[in-house]
Specification:
Elements lengths: L20 H24 L9 H13 L7 H7 L3 E8 L8 H7 L8 H9 L9 E2 L9 E9 L5 E5 H4 L4 E5 L5 E10 L4 E6 L20 E6 L7 E12 L9 E4 L11 E3 L5 E8 L10 E5 H14 L5 E2 L2 E5 L2 H7 L7 E6 L4 H5 L6 E5 L2 E2 L3 H9 L6 E8 L2 E8 L1 E2 L22 E3 L4 E5 L11 E6 L4 H4 L7 E5 L2 E2 L3 H13 L4 E8 L2 E8 L4
Helix pairs in contact: 1-2
């Protein structure tokens, strides 16, 4: 007889009804004070006998015993633990490159320079690899094996884990809490959120967990459950420390930070709330030494739902795209633009032939809302647009040259490749002339058309005073200043003129559009008075 699939989060708990811990602690404290007072009176009145009789003492002790002790998590763990699995992978043998340093890098599953590679180099184990992922011999010839965790989300064998756990895997095996092992197929992966969907065939009654519909609050209890190395489930407890964390993984970072110690091999495992529902997928830890220090990051359930639904449907994720380079609006930038608050996303440059450019969005515009909903910052804009389907019609609230506008456009599809050229120190700028000083900025500039390889627009920074405000804001030799205070510049004289105009208007800072390598950004530089 086949058992019906069970949603583990819906099973009843055997625990007693919860009472206020505050009330319990207060009562226990009051009882101890009363007992203490009794002991004090007894000590100072020996002739009169004990003020509290033995019956009174028994009553106090009985009341203390009635105080409910803090409820543990055993009932929740008993319900959800069977849904958590160990995920083991094998990757094909790698060819040795004959260079020790290169072979060391080859053990990493991430592309060199990628956001996840940088994150784990900084915060991962001692060798910079994700916990649970280690290669074969250092010569790079042996197969690479990986170990992580995951959890079933349906009775028919669909399971969630991390992309970095199964990326490039030739074979995937999952081991359940009862020790049974199955082969799994990778249905789809999403490197941008580090999520993957796998499928185990052959059964329709796998124990599974439910993704939460609620947003966790800071201070909520959280249980991190994993199945590292196939040894069986492990559980750690803590609280939600923060939400909306950006760990440098990409524009869609929106991690939940938890302080539950996440054990090695738990990548891809679930973080449960006290209802037994999955609030997030454990992805990364902050670890200067390779061990847990109580700072872990989980992908929110809301993101998991969106991504997994698309992976199940078509094996990949499509995201909306408007085609702009954006950056945060700092207080200095807000002041330069005459904004009351530092909010929204500043358009550094619209991409040629992108939806935004075709709709009339320009460099220097600030996108403050999408479909009537305010945009807090550049990250929120990226997540909002990325969460919409390509082809959707959207209305953008835009601050353009001091005027509020509503611009309608149709979203394109986010390209899989990054078109912007990375800035390199080896880029040939040709012979640079000494240029002309710009007083009180600490910059020396020359017309771009006089410097080989710098293009025809703007002025090239040929020298930066290391003690200047410009140096503090990241200016370096080879940068090209395209605009100052909204005006295009081509000579040092035009730069000085724009600065003088800004001073005349009593502005505290001036906004410059600067090109570094293949990307543009706006920089607010404070104006020296006098």
């Amino acid at each position: 007889m086949t058992e019906r699939p069970v949603d583990l989060s819906s099973l009843p708990s055997n625990g007693a009804p919860r009472r206020s811990l505050f009330s319990a602690r207060k009562f226990a404290l009051m009882a101890s004070v009363v007992a203490g007072l009794g002991a004090a009176v007894y000590g100072f009145s020996p002739q009169q006998g004990p003020v509290f009789t033995s019956a009174a003492h028994a009553q106090v002790n009985n009341e203390v015993r009635k105080v409910e002790r803090p409820i543990g998590f055993a009932d929740i763990v008993e319900r959800v633990k069977p849904s958590v699995i160990s995920v083991k992978i094998n990757i094909a043998a790698k060819t040795s490159k004959g260079d020790d340093s290169a072979n060391k890098d080859d053990d990493s599953p991430f592309q060199p320079g990628s956001p996840m590679e940088r994150f784990f180099r900084r915060f991962g184990g001692p060798d910079g690899l994700p916990p649970g992922l280690r290669g074969g011999p250092r010569g790079g010839r042996g197969p690479v094996t990986g170990q992580g965790s995951g959890f079933f989300i349906s009775a028919d064998g669909y399971a969630v884990t991390n992309n970095h756990v199964v990326d490039g895997a030739e074979k995937v095996e999952v081991t359940m809490d009862d020790g049974k092992t199955y082969t799994a197929n990778v249905i789809g992966t999403d490197p941008r959120t580090d999520l993957a969907l796998i499928k185990v065939e052959g059964r329709k009654d796998f124990p599974f967990a439910k993704l939460s519909d609620s947003k966790p609050r800071i201070g909520d209890w959280v249980l991190a459950v994993g199945n590292p190395f196939g040894l069986g489930g492990t559980v750690t407890a803590g609280i939600v420390s923060a939400s909306g964390r950006d760990i440098g993984n990409g524009p869609y970072d929106d991690f939940i930070q938890i302080d539950a110690p996440v054990n090695k091999g738990n990548s891809g495992g679930p973080a449960f709330d006290t209802n037994g529902e999955v609030m997030g997928v454990n992805t990364a830890i902050y670890s200067p030494s390779g061990g847990s220090v109580g700072i872990a990051f989980s992908i929110p359930a809301s993101t998991v739902k969106n991504v997994i639904a698309q992976l199940k449907d078509k094996g990949s994720v499509s995201r909306g795209w408007i085609g702009v380079q954006i950056q945060p609006v700092t207080s200095d930038i807000a002041d330069s633009l005459g904004m009351k608050k530092a909010e929204g996303a500043l358009v550094a440059e619209p991409q040629a032939n992108g939806p935004a450019s075709k709709a009339g969005i320009q460099s220097g515009d600030v996108i403050t809302g999408v479909n009537g909903e305010p945009v807090k910052d550049a990250k929120e804009l990226a997540r909002t647009i990325g969460g919409l389907a390509p082809g959707s019609a959207v209305k953008l609230n835009v601050l353009q040259k001091g005027q509020d506008k509503v611009i309608n456009l149709t979203l394109g599809q986010l390209p899989n490749t990054i078109e912007a050229k990375a800035s390199t120190d080896k880029e040939d700028k040709g012979s640079q002339s000494k240029g002309t000083d710009v007083p009180k900025l600490g910059l020396t500039v020359a017309p771009a058309n006089s410097v080989a390889g710098a293009g025809k627009e703007g002025v090239v920074v040929t020298e930066v005073d290391p003690k200047s405000a410009a140096a503090e804001r990241g200016f370096k030799e080879g940068d090209v200043i395209l605009e100052v205070a909204g005006k295009s510049v081509g000579t040092a004289g035009e730069v000085r003129e724009a600065l003088d105009t800004a001073r005349t208007e009593n502005k505290n800072s001036v906004l410059m559009r600067v090109k570094s390598g293949g990307s543009s950004r706006f920089v607010a530089v404070p104006l020296a008075k006098g």
